[in-house]
Amino acid sequence: MADVFIVQIFFIVFRETLEAVIVVAVLLAFVKQSIGKNHPKLYKTLLKQIWIGAFLGVFICLVIGCAFIGAFYSLGKNIWGKSEELWEGIFCIIATVLITVMGIAMLRINKMQAKWRVKIARSLIQPPATRRERFKIGYLLKKYALFVLPFVTTLREGLEAVVFVGGVGITGHSARGFPLPVVCGLIAGIAVGTFMYYGGSAVSLQIFLCISTAILYLIAAGLFSRGIWFFETNTFNKKTGGDASENGSGPGSYDISKSVWHVNCCNPETDNGWDVFNALLGWQNSATYGSVISYNVYWLFLIIVMALIMFEEKKGHLPFCKNLKMRQLNPMYHIKGKKNNELNEAEQAALFKKAESNLNRRAEEMEKEEAAQQATQHEMNAIPAQH
Amino acid sequence: MKLSSCLSAVFMASVALAETHYYNWTAAWSNLNLDGVKERPVITCNGEFPWPEIRIKRGDRVVIQLHNDLGDQNTSIHFHGIFQHNQTSQDGVPMLTQCETPPGYSYTYNFTVEDQVGSFWYHSHSKGQYMDGMRGTFIIEDPDGYPYDYDEEVTLTISEWYHELVTPLTQSFLNRYNPTGAEPIPQNLLWNNTMNGTWTVEPDKTYLLRIINIGGFVSQYLWIQDHEFEVVAVDGVYVEKNVTEELYITVAQRYDVLIHTKNDTSTNYAFMQGFDLDMLDTTPKDLIQNATSYMVYDENADMPDEYLLEDGTEYLDDFYLVPLTPEKLLPEPDHVITVDVVMDNLGNGINYAFFNRTSYTAPKVPALASVFSAGDAADNQTIYGSNTDSIVLQKDEIVEIVLNNNDTGKHPFHLHGHVFQVVERGPTYFDEPGPVPYGTDGSEDYVAPDYPARRDTLYVRPQSYFRIRFKADNPGVWFFHCHIEWHLLQGLAIVLIEDPKGIQEFQTLDDAWYENCDAMGIQTEGNAAGNTEDYYDLKGENVQEKELPAGFTARGIVAMVFSCIAGVIGCITIFFYGMADIPNIEQRVMDDLHMESKDLLNDDDEDDELDRMDPAADSDKVDNVKENTSSQGSSNDQKLRH
Q1: Where would you tag: which of B221, B286, B353, B523 has the fewest CB atoms within 10 A of its CB?
Q2: pLDDT under 50 in chain B at which residues?
Q3: Where are the annotated segments for Disordered (chain A) (predicted)?
């Protein structure tokens, strides 16, 4: 099973797809709400833009992903040579960091929806340009916002998936293990996303997101532990001259001084089935102090971070520091220096209003334009008739 | 006068040529460069190297006073292949037949070679020490003359050579960072203690070459360009002539061969030694796999290049050598000892070697001292310790050792105090998934040779087996062990306590023997644990390391439980967090969200102002103004509604 279906990859692709689907769904809903009835023609155009954007994004990231993985397999093996464990460890840690950072934010699907509404509004607020400006990039971006947004979204989610997949599965697995979980993840993500968004209530969506996030974090904790384990194995292999791993899971394949438990079976790297266990729960047949401690520390860290966020959400600041907020801990917050640029409700409402009117105005303009064009065409047609 | 001369003549005749050879040796360190590559400390004898050859006649007595001037190491000497009949105390095995001699002390070996002739050697039996140079050849001439004609006799030693000393090598070998028990890789092969040596020969002559592998690890292939070996003796046993192009010699094995030189003196020939690369864990790129020495007919002629045999050349299989004095296959054994060779790791992560799960661990009291002090209990093998793999053999019983090699390497096994009959040796089972022990490969119909080969060191093939037989007619404490020193250090040995009553009856330990133990502070009475009260109580005996912990121990379970709890609590937190209602979410999103939205609103105003100030602003102006009006209008609307 491990040969053709890498479980982590399925989950990551599934998850990223789900996010992309939700974004696209939010867009569709917004457009429908705003102009669906009033301007069917523009609505159609925008719909087309959204779909083309979404699929183009998916397509491009698939291409990039394939190229990335292909290059990885054809070049990678030689580059890494003896320090394969080191690289596996590094990739595990990178993937852990990515999942950790993305995961919590994604839990707040409500936030995400609101966020997207604002983004859309903002992009639509830009005015149509004069004729001679029509081919300027800035203008094009604005005009085709509903193409660009889903395109960028799917591309971003897709590239994230590529990086995750790379981090998770790239080493120790054969290239054969990629296509199937990727396809399954895509299908499952689209199906669930569609069903959840249109069919289910917000609560069931939330529960579902919680479950998938929990699984994602189980994977991340396992990855973190595994990354540390790989570093230790790398050290051990360096000291043993790199021939310990050839022993499989038997005596001598691990460092007894660092061993917490060791069973001569169930090796996730060689024994079928256990790799799934390893992928989802971070199972190791040869656990070390490093791998066990890192697993627990990771969860501890995560729990603390979530607790802090929840505290801040309730009280408006971090515990014991009245003037400190979570995002102030992020260095980027200070670099960007946008502490006081917050929209109040009225402004926000104004923004939406503006976007909506903008959109409607565009629709009108478009209709006018078309009417004018039609008129011109009539004239053109009429001219030969006069002769 | 006449009488006395008469008497002395009689005396001379009766003792035949019995002579006593005295040696006074001091073992010490000197820096030497044997292979022409690296100088390193080497154990020398009286400041010289190589160690002198002992050359005696059958029946002679050898007396060696050995002074240990090594400073940091104990020492001992074992005379390899010598039966030491009724003088087992001279066999030189630490903690079995004697105590080691500590630095600054001397010990005298004194023994007679009763009925043996041929090529032997001597070496330290202390912890791989002889690989640092403490070894020499021991030739016993036949008073009846060599059974084959030759013109000249030459002794040739071969061995591997390390650039590092045995002690540091052992530290990294018996180390948890060497979990596969990979033996240190030697740097070079020595040929008479040098590299690229020369052997000047005369044309059309027959040479008797006594080839002795005095190494501690690798077996070697030997061949000479355009010359053949006629094997005439192995391990001190004459055999019927056997011609071969190539020899395979494990450590401690000896081959006497006749080489007939060519008539033509114009060319010199390559005398080649090849590593048995299968024994090396890895083959370093810069390893000279085949060492070239020179058989020189004409010193002015060019020296030959490396000469390789064609692929598929087969070396002599010593199993088929027929002793010149045939000895009928011994009858069915009274005592069968079946041992399985296993290499495995113990609880400290170090790779050890085992005979039946026991890794030889030296007793606290030399086994021979236990024999003498135990009285009637000496007959019970329990007293020799549970971790020494000691087996008591009864007088004159026929013993068969069935050795199954569960390891994938070749191992040369050596039995002290005997030559044994080679009853059977299984083929290589290298490609089989697991070892093929004796009796499982469908060779029930196997018929042993009527007159089997006899020797004292025999290799077993990978994952295969051998059967050897001997008669327990030499009372003594005899070691049976792998002669690869690394494996002996790993504990690949058993002890045969042969006819303990016979030892008590016919042998003694002299004062010097006891003094030697006193110098080491070693007890000379009691069982393996040093218990003199109850010989069956082995409490406190030396034992091997504990087994590796199996699977989940207490700490493993604790770790597992903690990890599970952490995971579960983590997931619960995620749910709690994910499902939690957040107050004024929209506000928060806007906080999180880019203030660019606000900027945008402001920007418009700024643009507006800019536009007014700069009349040359581009045509966006018009649109912006229009836009502004509408947006301001709508925000005004908004405000009004509130």
Answers
A1: B286
A2: 1-15, 589-590, 592-642
A3: 362-387
